[in-house]
Specification:
By secondary structure, the protein is an alpha/beta fold. It contains 13 helices and nine strands. The longest helix has 15 residues.
């Protein structure tokens, strides 16, 4: 593992051309900066060829493979890929937190100045839910396109093959430091306005957003998308999440209620800075994180007179339909344009 990190550091010291990193982004704790559009993601054709090879194993017939590829090409169109590659810069990087290397990414429009910055917190746990290229193109590129620089963390251990289940990612424990650390890098991003910083997260990322917010006074506005506000109560709706908690959360078996309360914004919403407005977006048919979480938090925030907005999208689950997604992104970007 140490040899790999030394190798990555040496590569980063030697690389200067734009084929590896389009954005000039340096900091003593950052190594291995590379373009997102590298290797198999350099062109739409090579990316689709990679996806085809991956799906050949799952598709039992040529017809089934063709259907799979047709769906993927609808979800990820060539025109959107080409347009984003022309209009957006995107890099990945590694950074050090608490002696551990963490993967991160940065996306921003080309040739624009004084950009507001959004810190994005992903959902999932471990490698599940990581922000791979397709997720960037589908979920983050449309937001960045509206005039935002987006920086985010994959959380510690996500892409480290040496990490065993339950190591590093504590589902809202020490990994929150991975989000907080991103604030140190924002002044090093070219053409951004460091006085306009927002933060949002999806699913588990909603929890992560509120946890990190307590340590990030420079954040001016936040949004929680399909996030849980009371993890203990939410177990009544999705009991299988306890399997994740047992693996990820330290001392869970002996201190279950206290550990979940630490991660439940509903229990300490009165500690949130009232100068930071909160947007809550949720689908009323969400089976992974019940919409009740957003409703509970809305009621508490209303009682506390904390500026916020609740938006419930009818018929939507844990993830947006193609018809609803543009509306959700518009509301989200309008929110941050208004408050940043």
């Amino acid at each position: 593992m140490l040899k790999i990190l030394i190798f990555l550091l040496l590569i980063n010291m030697c690389i200067n051309d734009s084929s590896y990193a389009e954005i000039h982004f340096t900091h003593p704790d950052i190594v291995a900066t590379q373009s997102c559009y590298r290797g198999q993601f350099e062109s739409y054709e090579s990316w689709m060829q990679m996806l085809k090879k991956m799906n050949q194993r799952k598709a039992k017939t040529p017809e089934a493979l063709e259907k799979r590829m047709s769906r993927l090409q609808t979800l990820f169109s060539k025109s959107s890929f080409d347009n984003y590659k022309v209009s957006l810069e995107c890099i990945t990087f590694k950074y050090k937190v608490d002696g551990v290397f963490v993967d991160g990414y940065l996306i921003k429009p080309k040739n624009q100045e004084n950009l507001p910055v959004l810190i994005y917190n992903r959902g999932g746990n471990g490698r599940y839910g990581a922000v791979v290229f397709g997720a960037m193109l589908n979920n983050l590129f449309p937001v960045a396109e509206q005039g935002f620089a987006i920086i985010g963390s994959q959380y510690r251990g996500a892409f480290d093959d040496d990490v065993k289940p339950g190591e590093y990612d504590e589902f809202g424990g020490a990994d929150v430091d991975d989000v907080v650390k991103l604030m140190d890098f924002i002044p090093n991003i070219e053409n951004v306005d460091v006085s306009r910083i927002g933060m949002y997260g999806s699913s588990r990322g909603g929890m992560q957003t509120f946890l990190a917010l307590q340590h990030m006074p420079n954040v001016k506005a936040v949004a929680s998308v399909m996030g849980a506000s009371d993890l203990l109560k939410e177990l009544e709706n999705r009991a299988e999440m306890e399997n994740v908690y047992k693996i990820r959360i330290p001392n869970y078996d002996t201190n279950k209620a206290a550990e979940l309360e630490k991660r439940s914004v509903l229990k300490w919403a009165d500690k949130l800075n009232k100068s930071v407005p909160i947007l809550l977006q949720h689908g009323d048919k969400d089976k992974k994180v019940n919409v009740a979480n957003a409703i509970w938090l809305d009621k508490v925030l209303t009682k506390l007179a904390h500026p916020h907005k609740l938006s419930i999208y009818k018929g939507e689950g844990h993830g947006w339909s193609s018809e609803t997604k543009p509306l959700v992104i518009k509301e989200l970007t309008d929110w941050f344009h208004e408050y940043l």
